[in-house]
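Hi V.,

You were right to ask for the full record rather than a summary. Here it is.
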Amino acid sequence: MGIAARELSLYVIRPTLLYLGMNNPDAEALLLGIAASQSNLGSALHDRRGHGLYCIREPRHAALWDGYLAHDPDLASLVRGLASQHAFLCSPHLELTVNLRYATAIAWMLIEEQKAIIPKPNDLLGMAKIWRQVFEPQGRLRDFTHAWRICVTPLNQVA
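Predicted structure:
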């Protein structure tokens, strides 16, 4: 069993986006959908596809730092501020598994790096296309929409 969608959104995704200066409910919904499709909201935090909620591969993580964050020292410092002080130096990729806010920031940076236009939460196909473009190039759009309906839709039905 993974993390409750509502709690993941309220206590991890939203505060991380706010910390990064991004107050955007559409981005929050997109990240929630990606976490649902990549790891079933944390049911599997480490597998062959990558680390953490968003199943980010080590080479992709390193490339983001070297090719994107390295060119914006202020942003890099902000993201690095979410990582554990000592653990990051010893095993930076492990942070993707054990540090939910850091993993969320990295997932957002991967999306930002692609300059993707963030669709509205009711545009499941639009969100699925970004998921496939950024996280799972071989993924099927229906896998994203299925994960959304199973993991996230119940969140929207809770009043």
